[in-house]
């Protein structure tokens, strides 16, 4: 065999070995480098939220990677979202086209939450619509479930506080709901004043009620120093209690923050007389 023929055979052998190496490399490493994610699927009540779920495999170091799954959502056992227990006396004055639009929106929300229950906004909106129609128990169910799947949100708890306080007349639950809203969002002013109003309307007059009101507003000021709404609330409260020096103190704090507030300036002048 000539040298040129030997060289050609040697070159072909090297090429074949090189191609075999590449092929074997893809076989061993291809599955590691290629993402192995399941397709998004619509979530149902009681199932995981729709998301990408990784199958078990091995990472680049050879360690076994366990499947990544979201926690299972709790079952919703409240009133059906798509139906509303309408109180005619509550919505009698509203135009029919407005009510029809809201009923249709509620049907859409019912479809959305059946496909993807892990959506806070849908549950919050469902409660708002049900409350509009005077379906207070239905609103309660929607907001309670929102609180269950998003225990760190504040809106559903604040809504429940108002619902329990003003419509369902369950003051202990209203208090707990407002306190949870404050815990979750100490920068939100409304739950502080709403809880103080609850104490004012549901507690018997006396030192205990006054102390509760003062304590909750002062806790709001501790989290939100110099908030004018909370300062004004305490100023009015002390004025109503006949404690004019304390009322003057807090009105002056408000005026220092808002020097052009004529109403507060008038309150200060009246208290000084």
UniProtKB/TrEMBL annotation:
Repeat (TPR) residue spans along the chain: 228-261
SUPFAM superfamilies per record: TPR-like
Keyword set, alphabetical order: Membrane, TPR repeat, Transmembrane, Transmembrane helix
Transmembrane regions listed in the UniProt entry: 12-29
PROSITE patterns: TPR, TPR_REGION
InterPro entries, sorted: TPR-like_helical_dom_sf, TPR_rpt
Record-given protein name: Uncharacterized protein
